Amino acid sequence: MADFPESISARKGPSGFGKFITCVVSTRPQCERFNIEFIPRQLILDQRMSQQYPQPSANFREPAALDWLHAISESNGILSAILAVIHPKLYDAGWKATEYLGNTPETGAKELLDGWASVFSGVSVISNRITTPHRDVNSRANWYDILVTLGPYENCDLKLPGLGISLEYGPGTVVGISGKVLEHAVPSFKGDRVCYAYFMRNNMHEWAKIAGKDWMETSYYK
């Protein structure tokens, strides 16, 4: 995995419906964050939609951001392949949503999408930060997030309070998790750690009119 581009300035990303690619970098050493999100830009006021199509964030007009996307393209492809194994129908839905976005010229995002070698809606990159128990409210219950944890660290567990279990979460671990259903947390670790959290956004798929309602079942492999 590649480092995020240092030249990108710190700015607050939108919440709810917002620009479908955002970068967020906090300048605090123990809370550095870099987000890329593919989300339809639909700001609703008095039941009127102010913009029909997703639009790129101004952050990604900077060459450093595009270089970063290309630098992680191989990793993005590998993690998409993992999703194809553990949830093939979700992989198909993600591919269709990304393809639809790429075939919509009004988004003006062809160069960005050429560098986005993933079926996921986006990725959050979180550096040296503990995460309190939470669920991913913008996903769907039947979808998987992919979590990748990297770096020279130790003594780290992924906690799943609802199940009452704790998973060893050492460097190089990849986890597929239903983030909307399962509350999850990383309360502590020792060293330097970065987490790449890949996700799909419900409103992105709704905008593209991609169903993605299937649950993964063991019978798929029989």
Give an overview in words.
- This protein is of the alpha+beta class and 222 residues long.
- It has five helices and 13 strands.
- The protein has a domain of 118 residues.
- Helix 2 crosses helix 3.
- The N and C termini lie far apart (35 Å).
Short description:
The chain is of the alpha+beta class and 222 residues long.
List its salient traits:
alpha+beta; two-stranded antiparallel ribbon; 13 strands; 23% helix
Number of helices: 5
Helix content: 10-25%
Q: Which strand order do you get reading across the main beta sheet?
A: 1-4-13-6-10
Average pLDDT, rounded to a whole number, is 75
Topology:
Blueprint: E1 32-37, E2 44-45, E3 48-49, H1 63-71, H2 73-86, H3 88-102, H4 110-114, E4 122-127, E5 131-134, E6 145-150, E7 153-154, E8 157-160, E9 165-168, E10 173-177, E11 184-186, E12 190-191, E13 194-199, H5 202-208
Helix pairs in contact: 2-3
